[in-house]
Design goal:
α1 crosses α3, α7 runs antiparallel to α8 and α12 packs across α15. The protein contains 15 helices and 19 strands. It has 449 residues and is α+β, with helices and mostly antiparallel strands. The chain binds zinc ion. Zinc ion (ZN) binds next to loops. The site of zinc ion has 5 residues, from loops.
Length: 449
Amino acid sequence: METIHWDAVTEEAVRHLQSLLQIDTTNPPGNERAAAEFLADILTAEGFEVTILESAPGRGNLITRLKGDGSEPPLLLYSHTDVVPVEAERWRYPPFGGEIHDGYIYGRGAVDMKGIVAMQLMTMLLLKRTATPLRRDVIFAATADEEMAGVYGMGWLVDNHPELIRAEYALSEFGGFSVTLGTRRFYLCQTAEKGLCWLRLRAQGRPGHASVPHDRNAVVRLAEAVARLGRAKLPLHVTPTVREFVHGIAEAQEGEGREALLGLLDPQRSDAVLERVLSDSWLRYNFYAMLHNTATPTGLRAESKTNVIPSTAEAIVDGRTLPGQTQESFLQEVRAVIGDEVEVEVTLAARPLEFPTDTPLFRTMRRTLQQHDPDAVVVPMLLTGATDAKHVARLGTVCYGFSPMRLPPGEDFMARVHGHDERLAIETLAFGVRVLFDTVRAFCGRKEA
Ligand SMILES: [Zn+2]
């Protein structure tokens, strides 16, 4: 096999990422067609056949495929090219500049997720350049609209062109990044994500003149229910993913820390561990969200005049459900807190996802990460948010969040996602390209290759 000159590969990946960051794909409106055409030019120049499909004017979705020998089903590498809006005046460097400073590439989308688009693109190019014989097709899809639920992107592709992206396994965001806890470096690979169950709460009451208060005020009823729900602790549910995650981290700790972490999984001790042991509030909130369904009030409405008691008052609630939970089981938990006086309507629902770690692909991910970082501890992760995996999984695909990133010490990945000064270190991009390419080659290449 021809040797790969990794320094040149890194330079190329950096260049492509800079160009991608310079294309403003803020969603809304998205305008992802420009990013799709940029990728198409690179791919077609190297002999790929590329399809760009528009779900709506300007909403470009790009798909290409490297053929394998068909002995095993395809692997899908998918990413989104849209980004969330910026407050440009709060950035140190232009958010659509793609500028390099102190070893970092700056720009909206550097980590979420144009940096990963660049990793996947380089993986495709390298597989082709090395003429790696494949037993699985490798599909590359860079799609629109993930930041607005993928209606014009992956959701649309799954509904309208499933044959183009159908695969046994898929890799994408959100995971594969490193977190240093104590002295150990952990790589969190997403194998599960929470479901959505958004709610509207509605309280009815007796309208009237506000100068004569009475005990059937809809605003007061609603406010009481919302306050109870916002402060409530819903029941503990330990999912297989979170069990493996906590064990993976705990086993790398010494003494007391280890015992305390395992206590998170114990119904008798979990709350106490969250409150007394985890001093860092960010960690505490995240562990709570990984172990419980959540119902977060995010809006209130009771349109009226100051001197009129309205007959109805409404609140919206962002509900998130753990794998293993259903809409019904979640609603029961909510009802138990707010009682029967308030109506509950489900406005949006999506199922939670959970995939096993006992698969040949997950083993390949773990092995490859450890080859490149021998101290790495690889653990599965439950994402509390939602990604396009929700759509891809409808085709029966096993979806992992695996975009390998060894982060420089002190670099807070989570703070960069949707934050100001989003950036990716050049060394992190270089690591990602190598690990992703090696993973895909090992998993999809023919054994004799
Ligand atoms: Zn993203």
